[in-house]
Design a protein that fits this description.
The chain has 230 residues and is of the alpha/beta class. The protein has eight helices and eight strands, in the order βββαβαααβαβαβαβα. The protein has one domain: Alpha/Beta hydrolase fold, catalytic domain (Rossmann fold). The two termini are 23 Å apart.
Length: 230
Amino acid sequence: MSYVTLTSKEGKPFQAYFVEASDKKAPGIVLVQEIFGVNASMRAAAERWASLGYNVICPDLFWRKEAGLELDPANSDQFARGVELMQAMDEDLTVSDLEVARAWLEEKTGNPAIAGLGYCWGGRLVVRMAADTGVKCAVSYYGVGLEQLVPATPASAAPTLLHIAALDSYVPEPARNTILAAVNSRDGWEAYVYEGCDHAFARPNGELRDEQATQQAEERSVAFMQKHAR
């Protein structure tokens, strides 16, 4: 595990956390951060997915505003800072950074079987990745703003798996129903609702973490990626 330097489409350097699988030519994951930067939780997630047999790269998406920023979601001021940064981001530029990470990982491993997998804000961005980058599939954990995004995503987008927390205040029932209806109309897409779980139920060391749901979502994610990114 180490940091590597990527080059944006504008020719500027930015950092990404890279964890190599035991098989250097194994399939890959572009791991997409929450609104808190590539912090300890994201590094732990990267290491976990790598332990399951994936080469994992997690790019710093806040580098244009504040490179290397790590925020604590339990700190209200830092939480607010993360929201502020997310709202200020140019989403198209951010997706281009994620494609840079995907292309780097494919070149590094020689394997084009790469998925996008993200949490919260990252759970939204991977749906964009499914439509606008070269990933073979996407896995979204409690993505935000999906009730508008998923119905508008083109049919040509890569297969996508959505993990939705039933108690997630960011995805109230009407929004959830809109998302599920859109998923059900798409070939290759899947969605699961986790009863009794709140937003961030799979965050490593998070206060809302649900171990049973995390394990179930992980198993579903691996099966989905094995099917579509191989």
